[in-house]
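FORM 7B: Structural annotation worksheet

SECTION A. Query
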Amino acid sequence: MGMRKSTNIRRREIVEVSLEIIKEHGIQKLSLKRIARRIGISEQAIYRHFNSKLEILKAIIVYFNEALRQSLPPDVFQHSSNETILTLTRAHMAFIQQKPAVAAVIFSEEMFQNEPELADMVREALFRRLKHMTQIIEKGQRQGEFHSHLNPRAVAHLLLGSLRLTVVVWRLEGFPDDLVKRGEEVVKTVLQLISLNVQPVSGNLINHKPTQ
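SECTION B. Predicted structure
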């Protein structure tokens, strides 16, 4: 007993607890004091790992990017563009389903206007995802999966924007347990619109009634 946890384990614990606090109270209420109290350690112990709340938020973005990368099968980009997009969607939505507070951080560019370093990280991650999605669409167009006359960057905006709104609605409805299914339905619908070989989309997203 009383043995100090390793740096990596403690940093991970601080990130996990921060995500719990953000989910319950929002980013504004995240503080080193609140984190320390939740874990049961001194505020000074937090400072051994993170200098500020900003450092913790940056660690959350890194944590999200790494966890998402690790959750993808190694051959994810070897398949058709359709399959690649669906696999990426499932992984992305499954992670946010498991850690809803991550979405509050990665979708909060406007909130970080006074924190340029954090805003840059969030912006860079968004632009990277947009670039990757554009490249996947272009590949699908070259291989005859998608209509070639469509602007691939605009399609990437359509896909990522639709998923973002799906997450926003899901959060407003109190985090029900069907985010992966909702994301799949939205993406399959967009893929149906842009695909040369159209297959019907199953599901009843349009008929989904918000919880009261």
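SECTION C. Observations
The chain has two domains: 1-51, 73-212. Confidence is low (pLDDT under 50) at residues 201-212.

SECTION D. Sign-off
Analyst initials: ____
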